[in-house]
Amino acid sequence: MFTFEILRQFLPLCWLKNNPLELTRSTAFLKQNLLFFYIVEYFMQTNMTDDPFESFVEVSIETALTLLFIGLILCLNKTLYAFVQTTTAIIFCTNIVSLFIIPILVWLSLNEYLVGYYVLSLVGLWELILIAYIFRKTLTINLSASIALAAVYFIIVYMSSFFIGQILI
Predict the structure, then answer these.
(1) Separation of alpha carbons 139 and 23, rounded Å
(2) DSSP-derived secondary structure for 6-50
(3) pLDDT (average), residues 118-125
(4) Of 29, 133, 135, 13, whose CA–CA distance to 72 is shortest?
């Protein structure tokens, strides 16, 4: 199946439609999304730190923690068979949200209007809701558990990568 067709299947996830388990399982699409994820996260991290090596380390840790967290959660839930679809869904939604975050970060770097921080917070909340939705559909858990799991995901992946990166560098 062509990437464009798979893209059209995954895009409704960003509007809380479709079940990730019912979408096409494609390791090639997962790899493309991981590459895009890595490049965009590296760009954003380098913009914040101005140190390319530190950004490389932190984004590498962030990517590894993302894959490990998803794998661990699915393994504990005995749904590891859904690793490709779930990981693709999470990385894809993160990539789409990142496309909205980049112009906001550029706007905030040019001027520090308070409205920019509000918009950035709303886009971050959108990503949290998307991750919670994917976990809810994949793990068949209730809404509050999926929101809590998404919050734990953010803490482990983003904050831990920052702290581990600070320790290593």
Answers:
(1) 15
(2) HHHHHGGGGGT-S-GGGS---HHHHHHHHHHHHHHHHHHHHHHH-
(3) 95
(4) 135
